[in-house]
Amino acid sequence: MYLTNECEYGMRVIRALSDGDMHTVKEVAKIESIPVPFAYKVVEKLNKAGYLANYRGRSGGIRLVYQLDKITLFDVVTAIDSERHVKKCIRGENVCPMVGDKAACKFHTELARIQQVLVDELKSRTIKEVLAI
Q: What CATH number is associated with residue 103?
């Protein structure tokens, strides 16, 4: 799992909404220095994951609808990028061409270990803890 700019933008959108108020996507983009087109894309993914609500109309906007102590960094990352790996060779369907049916590749084994450490760490920290609210 690697963290893309879009994943970082997702965390920043959550941070901007952590005050509990309703904001427009353009406000959030400005507050967090996110390009507006990316902000809309990220908001759509976070909305689909159930972390945000989108209110239409003249006084509409977006609001966080999930408690900050219930959302982990892993939740945000997977809402944005559902299936990312440190290296594609560690995805289940891939077989290392350097090993074939022989013993596991030493690099594959180490990258898989690192991947699991990263996943465990992202799952262990809530947004509330990170923001120290």
A: 1.10.10.10
